[in-house]
UniProtKB/TrEMBL annotation:
InterPro entries: COMT-like, COMT_C, SAM-dependent_MTases_sf, WH-like_DNA-bd_sf, WH_DNA-bd_sf. It comes from Serpula lacrymans var. lacrymans (strain S7.3). PROSITE patterns: SAM_OMT_II. Residues 214-429 form the O-methyltransferase C-terminal domain. GO terms for molecular function: O-methyltransferase activity. This is O-methyltransferase C-terminal domain-containing protein. Keywords: Methyltransferase, S-adenosyl-L-methionine, Transferase.
Length: 450
């Protein structure tokens, strides 16, 4: 296949893209529903489905094939400038700060920018340019000249949607870190450091007199802390994280420990889906305050039935509650450099009994070398993209590589390859038992090593 002509490769990619699009449309049309359009004014039921593995697999191929076609056929200068001439984040920041999506809910037929500008006190000409850019991306609809309305995509930015808080984290904190990324690659004390206190975000806010780590900064402001923990619920929709509740056999287990569980992005849906499970949520005391409030509001029956315990834990200094069946870490290990990540795993290992399981739910970075990808796929049991696609699905898996940069910018940490994860686990006395492929993220299941 590597000897295919350029035309043959494009034809093969077009076939892959068409097949993936047909599969995605069939999934949207299940149960008598319709395929959404760019002008859809409300969510599709599949948007909020718990298990979206099949859809994510189709979209991974669709995005990867389409991206590779465009990068191949477009002039290189065209593609290169598209990598950097991207101001969507600046426009989205305005939308979030001014709650534009919330305002447009009251104007289902749209509102003229002149009227919207009076509500939010933003110049109408600048506002229309911003909204037209986003509408061109498919976020908002220009229903008439300078008249804009919500659509399925812009409703994600509504204040009631937890994904909005993850987007806010990126346009605020990540953007600050990205702005000084080059400087941190060169300046003494930052260039070769992997200390969380030397992350680019901390360099960016140091002139404000702020020191420590991202988590220290986050805890300094109650609104920022609440938004951060809410953003973890937003990851469910972005990563398709809740598919673990249907893909993994939780029905076989009765105790689950959510280590660093925050307000319950994982364990709240777990309590509603598997009502036989007793849950322990471990986190720092200030996080548990918000967690208790959230559970009392969203799952009071679990609290009343004593199916959930809230126990403070500093996972660097002590082990979780001992002898439970499942220990679950979602998006925890990726927050920390190797030394800290290994310490967390060692402390969890101390709590585990001979029949305990540790589930590490994170991205697993795939290789671009097809030879290496085949070796890892044999271990992972994961799908390699068919030729002539890049073996890691190219931009179809772009979020995991962008997330890797997010971890660097905020924490001086990283997403890990399978080899990275196995080395950390081995140092903690853990053995890989099975890998669960959820199409975007993976769940690595570990047991105590003999």
């Amino acid at each position: 296949m590597s000897n295919m002509s350029g035309r043959a490769k494009i034809e093969a990619l077009l076939k892959l893209a068409n097949g993936a699009a047909q599969e995605a449309m069939a999934l949207y049309e299940q149960d008598g529903m319709e395929v959404p359009s760019i002008d859809s004014t409300g969510p599709h039921p599949l948007d909020n489905a718990m298990d979206t593995v099949a859809l994510k697999m189709a979209i991974r191929t669709l995005e990867g094939a389409c991206g590779q076609i465009c990068s191949t056929l477009a002039p290189p200068s065209h593609t290169a400038i598209n990598l950097v001439q991207v101001y969507d984040y600046a426009c989205i920041r305005v939308v979030l700060r001014e709650n534009i999506s919330d305002i447009l809910v009251d104007y289902p037929k749209g509102i003229h920018v002149n009227d919207l500008s009076k509500i939010i006190d933003v110049d109408p000409l600048k506002l229309s340019r911003m909204l037209r850019l986003l509408s061109t991306r498919g976020c908002f609809t220009e229903v008439d000249t300078d008249v804009f309305a919500n659509n399925r995509l812009s409703l994600i930015l509504n204040s009631s949607n937890p994904v909005r808080h993850m987007i806010s984290l990126h346009v605020e904190a990540c953007a600050k870190g990205a702005g000084v990324y080059y400087e941190t690659l060169k300046e003494p004390g930052y260039a070769y450091s992997y200390e969380p206190s030397a992350a680019p975000i901390m360099h960016a806010i140091k002139p404000l007199g702020i020191e420590g780590t991202f988590f220290d900064w986050m805890r300094m402001d109650d609104d920022r802390r609440v938004s951060y923990h809410t953003s973890m619920r937003g990851l469910n929709g972005i990563m398709g994280s809740l598919a673990v509740l249907t893909q993994y056999p939780f029905e076989k287990f009765s105790t689950v420990v959510d280590v660093g569980g925050g307000i319950g992005a994982f364990s709240l849906p777990l309590a509603k889906t598997h009502k036989h499970v007793n849950i322990t949520i471990h986190d720092l005391p200030e996080a548990l305050v918000q967690s208790r409030t959230t559970w009392a509001r969203d799952c009071p029956e679990a609290v009343a039935e004593n199916r959930v315990d809230f126990l403070p834990l500093n996972f660097f200094e002590e082990a979780p509650v001992k002898g439970k069946e499942i220990y679950y870490l979602r998006n925890i290990i990726h927050d920390w450099p190797d030394n800290e990540a290994a310490l967390i795993l060692r402390n969890v290992r101390q709590a585990m009994g001979p029949h305990s399981r540790l589930l590490v739910h994170d991205y697993v970075l795939r290789q671009l070398s097809r030879k290496q990808a085949e070796v890892e796929a044999e271990t992972l049991g994961a799908t390699i993209a068919p030729e002539p696609m890049l073996p890691n699905f190219g931009v179809g898996n772009m979020r995991m590589y962008q997330q890797d940069m997010t971890m660097l910018l905020l924490h001086n940490a990283k997403e890990r390859t399978l080899r990275d994860s196995l080395e950390l686990a081995d140092s903690a006395g853990l053995k890989l038992e099975k890998v669960w492929d959820l199409a975007e993220a993976y769940v690595l299941e570990f047991v105590v090593a003999a």
